[in-house]
Each structure stands twice: as C-alpha cells, then as structure tokens.
C-alpha cells in the first residue's frame, strides 16, 4: 500500500549572513529562486502527496505569486507564516498537514541541490525500518575540536561524527508528539531529529550528498552555481508555465 507522505519546506530564513535584505530564499540560483528549486525537488518525489511551505509572514504574498504561481508548483497545499525560530515554524506547518499523513519529510528551503533521489532514499529507509526517524547526513572528514572560552577541551572521535542535512523523514505521530511535548516543556533544538532523540524515539542515518549545500554565505551560492554549471546533478528541472 503506497505511503502517504507530506513535506514541509522551511523557507522563513532572514538571510543576514548572506547579506540579503529580501530573504535569501528568493535569491536566484542560475536564474531560479532558491526556494523554487527546493520545492521542485520535493515535488518531483511521487511519494510526497502534499507540501506545506513556511515563509515569513510578510513574504506569503510574494511566495504565492513569485514562486508557486510563477513556477506552477501544484503540490503545495498551503503557505504558513513562520515563527521566530525554525522549530516553531515547523510546528505551525505540522498542524496544517492533512490528518491522513503517515510520513513527514522536512526540508530546508536553502538546500536547493538535494536531489529527488535523496528524498526517495530517505523515505524508503524509513518505510523499511522499525525506527521513527531517518536523517540524511555525511561523515565528517575534518578533525573536530570542542572549544570552551577559547580553550580546546576535547577532541571527539571523528569516525562517529556525521554532518546532518535535510531532508529528514519522520513517522507523523512521533514527530507531532515530540513537537507538542517540546512546546509544553519549553525545549528548543536545532533540528527535528534532536526532539525525537530527547523523547527516546529511534533515529537512523542514510548517507546524504556532498553537493547538498545549505546556502548560508555568498560563497555557498557561488559554489552551487558552479555545481549546476558543471552538470551531472540529478535535480528536478525548474520551469515557468507557458514558456
């Protein structure tokens, strides 16, 4: 029986580190807004039946006109105003999903090069396992130091360290339970998997993609442009209806 999956694409970042005054999600990558590219990759996955997009409240109109309407992205069932923090934004989007949703895929709108194949691999890994969450990640290649007050206090074994990406996939009841408990307890985490970990749900890893960049600085945008120009990335095509 086909799984009922929905995606939440978080696009409420302010983009201060990128020097963007209008929200980095609307910056163009090879002529197409970052957010449109992230949405296209999620929408290209057959298992994803609906997408809820999260943007800043003042950007809802722009997202509807310049992204969804302009690029004909039909799987988006709603646009939700984000909160002050990412966790709050995802919690709001969760409550906008169809109640029949079995699996929730959470993706950062600032990761425009995550391929549809990565989404499919993460969803399949969750369906094939008995865990409650699957995250995409890549092994850390640098030596990592834990630093406090300018002093090195520990050197973790890098063989056990992975750099986390999105998409992240979760069984809907476990994700909602974790968010609701965190909200009641005033607990904040940097990603959704950390909430599941806190409440003793099991989370596994699938290997991500080294090209799955998070656009944070101007150099990241330049590198993403170079990767697209190089070719070979199996990302979804972005197009404008009628062109």
Topology:
Layout: E1 5-10, E2 28-29, E3 32-33, H1 34-43, E4 48-55, H2 60-71, E5 76-81, H3 86-94, E6 103-108, H4 116-127, E7 133-139, E8 146-148, E9 151-154, E10 162-171, H5 172-185, H6 192-198, E11 203-207, H7 218-230
Plain-language structure description:
This protein is of the alpha/beta class and 243 residues long. The chain is globular. 32% of the residues lie in helices and 24% in strands. The strands form 3 sheets. The chain has a 7-stranded mixed sheet, with helices on both faces. A two-stranded antiparallel sheet has the order 2-3. It starts with a strand and ends in a 13-residue tail after the last helix. It has 7 helices and 11 strands. It has a single domain, classed as Spore Coat Polysaccharide Biosynthesis Protein SpsA, Chain A (Alpha-Beta Complex), CATH 3.90.550.10. Helix 5 (172-185) crosses helix 6 (192-198).
